[in-house]
Specification:
211 residues, alpha/beta, Rossmann fold, binds 3'-deoxy-3'-aminothymidine monophosphate, ATP-binding, Thymidylate kinase
Length: 211
């Protein structure tokens, strides 16, 4: 794909409750950008392919039990272990579209009752996204969508709490989109936000979370 000499890629994050449509919108967006000749990669957190990701995965599947603080730090470490390759990709001109990031990390742990500032601390110094797209869906609607899976956290009451925690993390990089829109409409909104972001972030330096 095309690499416009010297310009960096954008870090675009999709966030939202479980069943909000992030994963399908991520892949639709990445395909669209690829089609436009933009250098782009789809990432996701947790990255279950690493050793830390394997521990997280068995925790989520209820195969293993872990202390709430310990698993919070594992989710964070799973982002830290990818930080350098993330920075290298962005600097080489590749845009990264990420399915979940530090906001999931904080929202899900804070929903368990952990102190939100404590939850944010280990995320400090990771790369700040250029754009966060929040797929806004009432927890009740999410619950209706083909039902939750069997993983930890996939319960209505808990998701309500997660939604409240997410609201505390909203900042100027966030675009909140209505996840109840038809998928094609949603897709068009995401394309517009992503293309604007890719064009404008080239003048901005890569900066750390949390400002
Ligand atoms: N999750 C995800 C966390 O609790 N902390 C994190 O840092 C991240 C990235 O893991 N219910 C939770 C949110 C999800 C679950 O995500 C797995 P997915 O997108 O279903 O693989």
């Amino acid at each position: 794909s095309i690499h416009h000499g010297g310009s960096r890629g954008a870090l675009i994050v999709l966030e939202g409750l479980d069943r909000s449509g992030k994963t399908s919108q991520c892949s639709r967006l990445v395909s669209h950008l690829e089609g436009k000749g933009i250098s782009v990669e789809a990432w996701r957190f947790p990255d279950r392919k690493t050793d830390i990701g394997t521990m997280i995965s068995s925790y989520l599947a209820n195969i293993s039990q872990l202390d709430d603080q310990a698993v919070h730090l594992l989710f964070s470490a799973n982002r830290w272990e990818k930080r350098l390759s993330m920075e290298t990709k962005l600097r080489s001109g590749t845009t990264i579209v990420v399915d979940r990031y530090s906001y999931s990390g904080v929202a899900f742990s804070a929903a368990k009752g952990l102190d939100i500032e404590w939850c944010k601390a280990p995320e400090t110094g990771l790369i700040a996204p250029d754009l966060v797209i929040y797929l806004d869906l009432p927890p009740e609607e999410a619950a209706k969508r083909g039902g939750y899976g069997t993983e930890r956290y996939e319960q209505l009451e808990f998701q309500r709490n997660v939604a409240q925690q997410y609201q505390k993390l909203r900042d100027s990089t966030w675009k909140v989109v209505d996840a109840q829109l038809p998928v094609e409409d949603l897709e068009m909104q995401l394309r517009k936000f992503a293309l604007e972001c890719i064009a404008t972030c080239q003048k901005k330096t890569i900066s750390p979370l949390w400002p």
